[in-house]
TrEMBL record:
UniProt keyword annotation of Transferase present: yes
Gene3D superfamilies from the UniProt entry: 3.40.1190.20
Keyword field: Kinase, Transferase
Residue intervals of the Carbohydrate kinase PfkB domain: 35-292
Family membership noted in the UniProt record: Belongs to the carbohydrate kinase PfkB family.
Nucleus is among the record's keywords: no
Species of origin: Dactylosporangium matsuzakiense
Protein name: Adenosine kinase
PANTHER family named among the record's database cross-references: ADENOSINE KINASE, HEXOKINASE FAMILY MEMBER
């Protein structure tokens, strides 16, 4: 069986809704002593983190992905959920002192948000090395994580000769041009959305052609316009899949990655894999949360 490791963030999102307006509670002349607590109507806890989201989708598609990342002692229920859906969590690092990463966000009735992201055990995600696992991987996907872990993981893949995919997403904001070049060099796949692709070119000062010389396959998702795939030999766009209804786009990019790499690892062409990616992404949009969809 083909083996894929997915490395990156593992987190939960705690989402609350405040029926009033934040703005009405803020006194401009007293902000130096601001102290507020909002009585909220609703709390929704969603499983997330890019690596967990991608691994969930790969598990649904019949692979048994190895999840790599850092979590806290509170990971028990989340671990059980992922294991039930085919994800191998045996190499996840459990921190002794930190909680699993958590995004806590309150949204008011005007869609204004006040949020905090606690990275917690994500800071220790580098504790488990690929070489500790003693298992050959056909592909390692390196997603947004503690930035130092992302760079170290890519280095490990180059040293061990394991094909790898780089998916910097949110962490592009933390990388300068030199970091980005060090991260992506020699990757088999580079994945971004359209904006991140442009940001990556601006930060590195590289043209699309220069970047293409560093990676084999460049995948750029284009939201409702689908996805663009480019190699040194071909380039094409696959349209987005139809959605029955748009419920919640959270995790759509991760759903695409699950479908795309399930296709690739099952030996499908890049075009077929991109279509499968779009199909899974559409299922993510149709459900609330990133890991609430099912596939038949
Ligand atoms: N409105 C939509 N209808 C159908 N498919 C969509 C829609 N939006 C996105 N997709 C699918 O999801 C894929 C990824 O979308 P997008 O480029 O928005 O990713 P992203 O910006 O990384 O998203 P994320 O918010 O998860 O980080 C697209 O390639 C497409 O297949
Ligand atoms: Mg994204």
């Amino acid at each position: 069986m083909v083996r894929i490791a997915v490395s990156g963030s593992i987190a939960t999102d705690h989402l609350m809704t405040f029926p009033g307006e934040f703005a009405g509670q803020l006194l401009a002349e007293r902000l130096d002593v601001v102290s507020l607590s909002f009585l909220v109507d609703e709390l929704v806890v969603r499983r997330g983190g890019v690596a967990a989201n991608i691994a969930y989708g790969l598990g649904l598609l019949g692979l048994r992905p190895v999840l790599l990342g850092g979590v806290g002692a509170d990971f028990g229920d989340y671990r059980a959920w992922l294991e039930r859906h085919g994800v191998d969590c045996s190499h996840v690092h459990v921190s002794r002192s930190r909680h699993t990463a958590r995004f806590v966000c309150t949204t008011d009735r005007n869609q204004c948000q006040i949020a905090s992201f606690y990275p917690g055990a994500m800071a220790e995600s580098g504790a488990v090395r690929l070489s500790d696992i003693g298992e050959p991987f056909d592909l390692v996907l390196i997603g947004a994580d503690e930035p130092a872990t992302m760079l170290a993981r890519a280095d490990e893949c180059r040293k061990l000769g394991i094909p790898f995919a780089v998916d910097p997403s949110q962490q592009l904001a933390r990388f300068d041009g030199a970091d980005i070049m060090a991260f992506i060099d020699g990757a088999r796949y580079l994945l971004t959305n359209e904006y991140e692709g442009a940001l990556l070119e601006a930060k590195t000062g590289c043209t699309a052609a220069q970047l293409q010389a560093r990676v084999e396959v460049r995948v750029t998702t284009l939201a409702d316009r689908g996805v663009h795939v480019a190699t040194r030999h071909e380039r094409f766009t696959v349209p987005a899949a139809a959605t029955a209804r748009v419920v919640d786009p959270t995790g759509v990019g991760d759903g695409f990655r699950a479908g795309f790499f399930a296709g690739v690892l099952h030996g499908r062409s890049l075009r077929e894999s991109a279509r499968l990616g779009c199909l899974v992404a559409a299922r993510v949009i149709e459900s609330a949360g990133s890991q609430e969809y099912t596939l038949d």
